[in-house]
C-alpha cells in the first residue's frame, strides 16, 4: 500500500478542483490517501527578502508532506490560461526549500474548469514544470465544463464518458505506483 498525498492548487474554499480531488480520492481503496487543503494554509508571497527571514512554517509543512508520500494527486486550477498565482507561489517556495522537491514522485495531474478546455493550459504548464523539480507525471486528466459534467451536491461525475476516463487514469496511476513500490 503506497501513501498518496492529494491536493488542489486553489485558494478558493469552494474550489471545483478540490471537488474533483475528493471524487478521485474516494475511488482509491488500494492505497493510503491523505487530502491536504492548501487553501487553509497561510503562505506569504515569495520574495528573496522573505526567504532570508526563513521558510514559513506552512511551507515546511507542505514540503514535509510531499517528502513523506511517494505519489501525488494534484488538481490545478486555471486563471487566464495559466496556473493560479496562489499555486505558483507555493511552487516558488517549495523549489527554494529544495530544487528537487518532487524528486522521485509519481504524479496524477488533473484539472477542471467551467470552460470547454478544462484547464488545459494550466495542466500543460504543470506537465512541463514538474519534471524540472524531479516529478514524473504518469497520468493526467482534464474535466471540461465542470458545472455540466459534475454534480457538486453528490460529488460525482455525471458524464459517463468522462467518468470512465477518470476510472482509466486512476487504474493506470494505481498500477504504476504499485509497480514502482515492488
Automatic annotation (TrEMBL):
SUPFAM superfamilies: Flavoproteins. One of its GO terms (molecular function) is FMN binding. Residues 2-143 form the NADPH-dependent FMN reductase-like domain. It comes from the Bacteria. GO terms for cellular component: cytosol. This is NAD(P)H-dependent oxidoreductase. It comes from Salinimicrobium profundisediminis. The lineage of its organism: Bacteria, Pseudomonadati, Bacteroidota, Flavobacteriia, Flavobacteriales.
